[in-house]
Amino acid sequence: MTTGRLHALRHWAFGTRLLATALIALPFATPAYAITSSTAAALTPQDNDSALDVHAVRRELDSFQAAQISLRKAMAIAEALHSGSITADISFDGASEPAVYRVKTMQQDRIWRHAIDAATGEVVGGEAAAPLKSLGAEDRDNLVVLRALRHRLADAVRVAEHTTSGKAISGGLMRERGKLNFVIVVLAGSDLKEVILEPPGARRR
User: Fold this and answer.
1) All domains of the chain, ordered by start, with CATH?
2) What pLDDT does residue 21 have?
3) Rounded to two decimals, what is the model's pTM?
4) What are the E-state strand segments in the chain?
């Protein structure tokens, strides 16, 4: 379950791509291994088919660096709004006024959408809810697996930030070749880095 904003940020996360798999026996505190496929690079387009204008991305990242509320804090705020809810997707939106984190949480059979002010932590513009059955089949299946996992998106964010020594700007779920992974985009220095984490148990479902 990935938003358009997460897809766009992933396009720019070419500085370093880290592939990490957590050992089932470990508490997901650190990845079992991490492979760096390329060296860190400055934020410049790789090709003409850019997902976002480089200047817009730069403004977005400047806004993110000025945010007082971290992505993990925004997740905690959104989850506290509805008892038992867990975050399925979160992205920083610096183009809105004020800058916000857009968070999707799941509570039983409902999906909640919230905007959390990145400066104050307040909920902006109310909230919206939709039944889980309104999603596509793949998104529904991904969320069913997420609900059954012992680890949460917040755990993956913590690992990604520790691995890259950066700050997470977005996170969500992605299924590739039948495997459900957490995908975290992190700002480390001036570089966007993508961290993919396979939660223990996801492969078997």
Assistant:
1) 4-36+52-198 (3.10.450.40)
2) 42
3) 0.76
4) 16-21, 34-36, 86-93, 100-107, 110-117, 123-131, 167-176, 179-188, 191-198
